[in-house]
Specification:
Length: about 270
């Protein structure tokens, strides 16, 4: 498969193939743990994915066959957060969670190994998870002095139920890909050598569907859980669709032409 580089970064690879953008955390020496720079890189790539209309689906993965992502890089964990190159403590992976959630296109976690700690949260936040048979899932937060009481736990509970979510966080055990699938937090499991082919097939199927329908389904599923913010994003898209209608154009045209708008000519559907 001929992936072409979209943009070069320090900590990630960012590539394109037939409508699919692939973001690969490229820090195999730390099992693809993220530091603040990694999240800045991913946020920049996500912005590009949002803007480019030739990108239909985003795939998030990690380099190698050991890890998808092992969470926050413990080497740079300091007082108040993960320390960036200027000495500022950050937890900017939360901005990435928001970007994945807001992205009006599907984001698929292609889990090629450990999805642990903050890496587990990343796959939870993605719209779909496709895992290889060797993948392992689990939390470590309460073992290593951390926790994610946001999407990483409450959205997780929507996937696996409250009892399992509490088990995952309280015990910090590891689960096989099959167990994760049985729990409902993984969509499908395939042999490692098939992982990318399977993911690309899912992407291509999604891209045969109506992008606007997919977008509204994602917004609607988010809105039920995301409160005012979810409603705002759903409503924003409703406004966008209204702007596509002649009825909305009439309002603007009437204003510019200094006349009363003729809204009554538009149908009132039952
Ligand atoms: C992932 C896991 C279970 C793998 O175990 P194993 O035994 O197969 O490999 P090993 O030897 O532990 O790891 C391989 C190399 O990767 C580094 C290790 O230090 C090791 O390096 P060397 O000794 O070979 O030089 N490595 C792995 N994970 C790392 C990490 N997160 N930071 C820095 N280096 C890492 C095992 O490695 C493991 O349990 N890793 C730690 C997972 C973890 O606790 N992550 C942080 C959780 S907290 C978090 O992510 C978080 C949050 O809870 C809330 C908000 C934001 C972040």
């Amino acid at each position: 498969r001929n992936w072409t580089t979209i943009k070069e970064y320090e900590d990630i690879k960012f590539e394109f193939f037939e409508g699919i953008a692939k973001i690969t955390i490229n820090r195999p020496e730390v099992y693809n743990a993220f530091r603040p720079q990694t999240n800045f890189d991913m946020l920049d790539a996500m912005d590009i994915c949002r803007e480019r209309s030739d990108i239909g689906v985003i795939v998030l993965t990690g380099t190698g066959d050991k890890a998808f992502c092992s969470g926050g890089d413990q080497n740079v964990k300091g007082v108040g957060g993960y320390i960036d190159e200027h000495g500022v403590p950050r937890l900017n992976v939360l901005d990435l969670h928001k970007a994945i959630r807001s992205m009006p296109k599907p984001v698929i976690a292609m889990v090629n190994g450990y999805a642990i700690g903050g890496g587990h949260v990343l796959h939870v936040v993605c719209d779909l998870t496709i895992a290889s048979e060797n993948a392992k899932f689990g939390q470590t937060g309460p073992k290593v002095g951390s926790f994610d009481a946001g999407f990483g736990s409450n959205y997780l509970a929507r996937h696996v139920g409250q009892k399992k979510a509490r088990e995952i966080w309280f015990l910090c055990k590891q689960y096989t890909a099959k167990e994760a699938e049985d729990m409902g937090m993984v969509n499908t499991v395939v042999p490692l050598e098939r992982l990318e082919d399977e993911t690309v097939e899912w992407c291509k199927t999604i891209m045969m569907r109506s992008p606007m329908a997919i977008r509204m389904i994602k917004r609607g599923l988010n809105a039920e859980l995301d409160g005012q913010r979810g409603l705002m994003e759903f409503a924003g898209d409703a406004t966008m669709m209204y702007y596509l209608m002649e009825e909305a154009q009439e309002g603007k045209n009437a204003f510019l032409e200094k006349r009363d708008p003729e809204f009554q000519k538009f149908p009132k559907f039952p």
